[in-house]
Each structure stands twice: as C-alpha cells, then as structure tokens.
Design goal:
Length: about 300
C-alpha cells in the first residue's frame, strides 16, 4: 500500500503525519465516530468515484441518526473527496470520510463538543487478496446487532465491534469471513458485506427487516440484475438455505463482488464462482471502470 501523503481535514489538506488527535478524544474512547467507505476506479477518462453522491447522503444520514452536527455540506464533502484523490495523484483508491468528536475528556456526554471531519484516500486492492477465486465462510456464533440496540442502518464506528468479533472468530477457525444471523434467526449479512444467494436463477438477498446495512453496492447489484432480466427477491433467508443455494456471494465497497465457495465446510457451486455471480461481477467491473455507459451516471470523474 502506497504511503498516504495528504489528508483533508476540516477544510484544508494536511500531511498524514501531522493529522494527530488526543488519546482521550471522545470518538477514540467510545466509538462515537461515523464514516463511509467509497471506491475510486481508474478509467480511460481518468479516476472516477463510484456513487459518490449516494455515499455522501448516507454519511449525512448517519450523522442525523447519531445527532452529530457537521460543519460541512454534502456538496463540500463531495468536493473534498475529489480533492483528496487529486491532491495525492491517485488513479484508484479507497476513500474514507470520517467524522468524530475532537475534544478530549472522559464521559459519554457529547453536548457542545466540536466535530471534526477528515478524509483519507489510499491505494486499496481486492479485500480478500489478488487472484481470489472465492472465499470460505462460517456462520458466526455472534448475531448481528439489531435496531433496538444500535441503529443497524448507520455506519458508526462503535457498531463494528460486532463485526470484528465475528471476523475474529471466523479467522481463528480457519475461514476467510463470517456470516452473521439476525436476532430472529434468519441470515443478516457479513461483518462488512451484504450477502446474496442464487437459487434456480433467482437472486435472493435479506431484507431491511433483517437489520442489515443497506449497502450501496447491494443496491447497485439489485439494479444491475434487474437490468439484465434477473428476478430479484428481498426476503428472509434461513440458515439451511445457505447450504443448498446454487451460488452465494458477498457485496460491498471493499469486497466488491466476492464469490462464496463454501459455508460451514459445505461446498457452494462446486467450490467455484457460479455463472450468475460471474455475470454480475463482470458487469459491475465494467461499470465501475467506465466501460458500460448505461450506468455512467454512477461515476463522478475527478478531473473536471
């Protein structure tokens, strides 16, 4: 991973080595930060950020849910993401906007505290490694948080402790990633990914009521699938349906489309990427790299 040279922070660029906070910063101590993950891809017309406006909107929705005042507008956030790519001369990158309570101190009260917004952009390849043809998953013993506990539809730092526990458990058991169940006993999602299965050429994914994060990549896959004539169903998925599915895959900004080739040591799609997964994966790759004009409105080019 290339060295990050500059971060955007509160309206100006600073060297990454100079971006420092106090050890008792509230969001570091209590997980009260909010964030987004956004991909920028290299295209024939220069770097292009994928669905920037949708990510920026979700960032502000998370801030609203957590009553976090942001001293920045959505358009300013979008411009700052573009500027960070250009400032660091990146062709492709993972962009991380992050808002946090800046002042140090002990205690839960955030009333009157100052919020700071920072944006980093780093070179970032496939989440599960180059040349990965598929991953092996396990159903975690940890359930996905639900909205009676924490707002599952928000991207807040503290929410992801749940994800870390599940990933740690899976990795310790020799798996690549975890699958979390909802509190009602149906499939929810991965630690940082939405999940899809394919059964009889029907694309199935858990609904909002399963306490999932409504992923922007998930939404993209649904729209792409419908565009090519696939039937898409959002419904509860039972655990045993994972084992008998024809195909399964994760979607997410970091994961993109990642085939799942086994779950709890049960082989999926004969241990390889299935045809529906490949079709969607290829179309998605063409779209994000500017090779498919039908969804060109999803790209924001950094070179005006």
């Amino acid at each position: 991973m290339a060295q990050q040279n500059y971060l955007w922070m509160d309206g100006k660029f600073v060297r990454s080595v100079d971006a420092k906070v106090h050890i008792l910063t509230h969001s570091l101590q209590y997980g009260s930060g909010i964030f987004e993950g956004i991909r920028c891809y290299n295209t024939d017309n220069g770097p292009a950020i994928f669905r920037l406006k949708d990510h920026a909107k979700r960032f502000f929705n998370t801030a609203k849910i957590y009553r976090m005042p942001l001293k920045i507008s959505i358009s300013e956030l979008e411009a700052a993401c573009i500027g960070t790519i250009n400032k660091n001369h990146l062709k492709s990158a993972y962009i991380r906007p992050f808002a946090f309570y800046k002042e140090p101190g002990i205690g839960f009260n955030v009333s009157g505290k100052t919020t700071s917004v920072a944006i980093a952009a780093i070179e970032f390849g496939p989440l599960f490694g180059e040349g990965q043809k598929g991953i092996k998953c396990m159903v975690s013993s940890w359930n996905r948080i639900n909205s009676t506990i924490l707002p599952a539809g928000a991207k807040a730092s503290g929410n992801y402790i749940n994800s870390i526990l599940a990933s740690q458990e899976a990795n310790a058991a020799g798996y690549d990633e975890a699958i979390l169940m909802s509190s009602s006993g149906t499939v929810a999602e991965g630690p940082g990914e939405n999940i899809f299965i394919v059964q009889d050429n029907i694309l199935i994914t858990p609904p909002k009521s399963a306490n999932i994060l409504l992923g922007i990549t998930r939404d993209s896959i649904i729209k792409i699938a419908e565009n090519i004539g696939l039937q898409v169903v959002e419904r509860d998925i039972r655990r045993e349906e994972l084992y008998t599915s024809d195909e399964a895959f994760f979607s997410g900004t970091a994961a993109e489309l990642t085939p799942i080739i086994s779950i709890d040591s049960r082989q999926i799609a004969n241990g390889r990427q299935g045809p529906v997964t490949k079709m969607l994966r290829d179309r998605y790759a063409a779209i994000v790299r500017g090779e498919d004009k039908e969804f060109s409105n999803w790209l924001t080019f950094t070179k005006g």
